[in-house]
Structures are given as C-alpha cells and as structure tokens.
Amino acid sequence: MQTVNADVIAITPLTDIIYKVTLKPAIAAEFEAGHYLQLVLGEKDKRAFSIASKPSQQNELELHIGTSAADSYAAQALDHLRHAFEQKAPVELEVGLGVSQLRIDCQRPIVLLAGGTGFSYVKSMADHLAEVGCEQPVLFYWGVKEESALYAKTEMEAWAASKENFHFIPVVETPQDAWDGHTGYVHQAVMQDITSLEPYSIYMAGRFDMIGIVRDDFIKHGAIREHMYADAFAFIK
Ligand SMILES: Cc1cc2nc3c(=O)[nH]c(=O)nc-3n(C[C@H](O)[C@H](O)[C@H](O)COP(=O)(O)OP(=O)(O)OC[C@H]3O[C@@H](n4cnc5c(N)ncnc54)[C@H](O)[C@@H]3O)c2cc1C
C-alpha cells in the first residue's frame, strides 16, 4: 500500500448520478489491475473506490463514483473531491489495495462481471489485458438497471472489436422496447450463455447483496471458489 497526495484534475458526469474523477498523483501510483484505493476523509474515515484506469497509466488515476440518493458514502466522498478541486488542494490517497486483482497466468478463460459502477473494477483489467496480449477468451459482462447507465458502451464495443478473444455483453435489467440484448440480472445472463463455469476465472464487483447471490449461484453453476475474485467477499458472509 502506498500513501500519495493527488490533485483533482477533473470531475465529469457520466450519467445523472455517476461521475468520472481524474486524479494526478504527486508521485507515480503503484497498483495492479483490479486494485482499489482509499480516499482519506479523516484518520478513521477512508472510502474505497476501484481504480478504473490501467496500471501502466501511473500518472493519472480515474475513478467512477456513483452517488444515488440512498448512498451518502459515495456522495460525501465526491463532496470532498469537489471541495479539493475548487480549492486547488491535494487529496490524500492510499493506493494499491485489495486481494482481487487480476491474475495474469492466461491459463484459464476469464469472466469479468460488473454490476453498475462495479464497471470501474473490471475496466482496468480489460484495458490491461489488451496491453499484455492474453489469448484466452475474455467475456466482459456489464449489468445495469437501465440502458442509459451504460455510459461506456461504445468504448467497450471498441475494446471487444480490438481482439478476437474479447467479448462485451451488456445486460439491461429493465429495458425499453428497443433493447435487443440480454435482460434481467447480469449473472443470470452469464449462466444462460455458459453451460458450466468450471474452467473460468471470474472477477466480479457490484453491490454487496448482489455479490453474495452471484457467488452462490455461480458455484451451483460449476464455478470453483478458488478461481472467483471479489473484494466484496471480505465484507459479506
Ligand atoms: C473495494 C470496494 C470498491 C468499490 N469501488 C466503488 C467504485 O469505484 N465506485 C462506486 O461508485 N462504488 C464503489 N464501491 C461501492 C459498491 O461497490 C457500489 O456501491 C456498487 O457497485 C454500486 O452498484 P450500483 O448501485 O451501481 O448497481 P445497481 O445499479 O444497483 O445494479 C446494477 C446491476 O447489478 C446487478 N444487481 C444488483 N443487485 C442485484 C441483486 N440483488 N442480485 C443480483 N444482481 C444484482 C443487476 O444486474 C443490476 O442491473 C466499492 C466498494 C468496495 C468495497
């Protein structure tokens, strides 16, 4: 873990409630794809956010922060970042945290599974995999409640088009009539598409209640617990 000060370079809306935050660390940030950082609000108040940017981009960190009305945890963090941006003051970060970073052995096909802003966690891995040149299939599933929340759909379609073994599957829980892709919960789409999850390494991020359900359903669908990764596992039973 590395403690580093960073300037807030930009805060840009991605949707009505999700913001992209760009940070410039004072020294090169050291982390692996899938690590998270903590934004230090106080000595005992540190807020966890996945690092959306790839590790080779050490001098600029990207976060995606969702701020629904029910979630003051993220909204307070965003207020802290906005205040620092306006004051041109640095924020304090703890970088390189987590145990669910990408294992690049390239021996197993990979499922990257994101619910909502869990996208940030797997986006870093997807971009890193594009750089390291792994030949195993990589299936990137992104589940959202409404189509308008797929704020990086075009970017991910371009990622999938860049390599034959990359696949991007967006899943909209409650779509409008025009949507012709997968619907419902994102992990159910995975289980519809893949007969057995036994061969796969699976990386997942999303709401805590979601991750508990996905873990149990995936194990019933053949997934091997030792090849399932989520930092939320540390917070749930
Ligand atoms: C280490 C760590 C890092 C974090 N990083 C971030 C971050 O970078 N940004 C951030 O905003 N928050 C972060 N959080 C907080 C938390 O992960 C988010 O609050 C969560 O991902 C938000 O999901 P959402 O509201 O966008 O999903 P929603 O919009 O509620 O759901 C999106 C999709 O997830 C699936 N889903 C949701 N609920 C269920 C369910 N009960 N069963 C099955 N599927 C379900 C569905 O497919 C649904 O369409 C982090 C937390 C930790 C512990």
TrEMBL record:
SUPFAM superfamilies: Ferredoxin reductase-like, C-terminal NADP-linked domain (SSF52343), Riboflavin synthase domain-like (SSF63380). It comes from Pseudoalteromonas citrea. InterPro entries: FAD-bd_FR_type (IPR017927), FNR_nucleotide-bd (IPR039261), MRET (IPR050415), OxRdtase_FAD/NAD-bd (IPR001433), Riboflavin_synthase-like_b-brl (IPR017938). Signal peptide: none annotated. Keywords: Luminescence, Oxidoreductase. GO terms for molecular function: oxidoreductase activity. Residues 1-123 form the FAD-binding FR-type domain. One of its GO terms (biological process) is bioluminescence. It comes from the Bacteria. Belongs to the Fre/LuxG FAD/NAD(P) flavoprotein oxidoreductase family. The keyword Oxidoreductase applies. The keyword Oxidoreductase applies. This is NAD(P)H-flavin reductase.
